[in-house]
Amino acid sequence: MFRPLMIAAALIAATPVLAEEVTVYSARIEQLIKPLFEAFTKDTGIKVKYITDKEGPLMERLKAEGSSTPADLLLTVDAGNLWQASQLGLLKPAKSSVLEANIPAHLRDPKGEWFGLSVRARTMFYNSEKLKPAQLSSYEDLADPKWKGKLCLRSAKKVYNQSLVATLIARHGEAKTEQIVKGWVANLATDPFADDTMMLKAIAAGQCEVGIANTYYFGRLIEKEPKLPLALFWANQASSGVHVNVSGAGITRHAKNEKAALKLLEWLSAESAQKRYADENMEYPVNPKVSADPIVAGWGGFKQDPVNVAKAGELQAAAVKLMDRAAYR
Ligand code: FE
Question: Which domains does the chain carry?
Fold first, then answer.
């Protein structure tokens, strides 16, 4: 008589509760995201599946998979890339008072398709044996002939420089920006470098005196080689502010777990996660309530360019063409 009941009870016990989950396509490396995703699962019970790759292949994959994609969230660096994903129709807008409260308006998409999660500052670095900070001022000033043979730059192919030039176009228009970029090219000490770290090493070695890089590359390098004669200068403090960009994420157009994806986004923008997310890569928290890692904070406070980072995407094509015209390779 109670046998069927026993079977029913056993069946119920054997049926697993369908755990909520979210799948992330991430251009941020596993080492940076895994600890955060694990903490999110611990906090919320929502499982996180992810794959990591470069942003190009991830976006191609999203496009090819279309509505059958398992991805709910695309996580990548640079507003130029996020804007691109939005342009390709790979993202869908989210409305969230939590995200709006945690992330300043200029660091997220006005349409709500992507949200900045950390701030990356691209500023000036100089050889401290050759220059005094008082000699430096702005990105624009690096076009002045007084810097002839003293400037180092990373390749124009890198989206970071395309975004920087895009924001110069937003501020000055194309004609003036082209003059600035031509001035940079005329001042180069040597061919543009393949990455920021090589460029910073060239400054420290005295091959050139000043250049432009993201602060976390400086942080990593100086941690390993603290004696390098290399120093940070906050650009454009008397004018437009330091060029900033973001790493960030957006919910995919065909997300199956949209609610869980939004929860993860909100969780990443909150104070506890922000601290870890930014500190892992020596970046700045996007949430103004959170302070930077002590080493990062030690570089001092700075005024940010308040232009919406979406401009970096909108004007990316114009920036690429302009740099080509200016023979910046
Ligand atoms: Fe980088």
Answer: 3-119+246-290 (3.40.190.10), 120-243+313-325 (3.40.190.10)
